[in-house]
Amino acid sequence: xxxxxxxxxIIFCVSCDSNKxxxxxxxxxxxVWGLKDRVLFEVEVKDTVSLQNVFLNVxxxxxxPYRNLYVISKMSLPSGLVLIDTLEYxxxxxxxxxxxxxxxxxxxxxxxxxxxxxxxQQGMYVFxxxxxxxxxxxxxxxxxxxxVVDVGLRIEKTQx
Length: 160
What we know:
Number of helices: 1
Order of helices and strands: HEEEEEEEEEE
Helix content: under 10%
Mean pLDDT: 90
Largest sheet: 4 strands, antiparallel
Shape: globular
Radius of gyration: 18 Å
Low-confidence stretches: 2-15
Structural class: mainly beta
């Protein structure tokens, strides 16, 4: 009987994530994202037909002090073309409560990076992310952004 429940549990877990093309995290040292610390993901893309969503996954804990998160993204295509963008995400509500999923002090945030994106080329894509936070009125960025535990990249096929 236990074997049946284990088998059904495995089937359920695998089937729930059938749209996943890529999913990886990098843990940040001591929960601090340094100003010059890049988070890098190398992804081999084979599907240039399907529409896909690309997510920046960010896990924060109670030490995250801000309501938003600014990130510089850099996507290098197999052709050598590099696309750079500045992204802003809301990380807490007006009362300072962290947004995201999770019942503990760690919240998981699945943030859209590219929505309904069709990769134009097969080959190796390199995704780089840098935190771009700074205190109000200051020019220079924060040397260390506390409360960011993990940063991840997830690519999944869109649901038809």
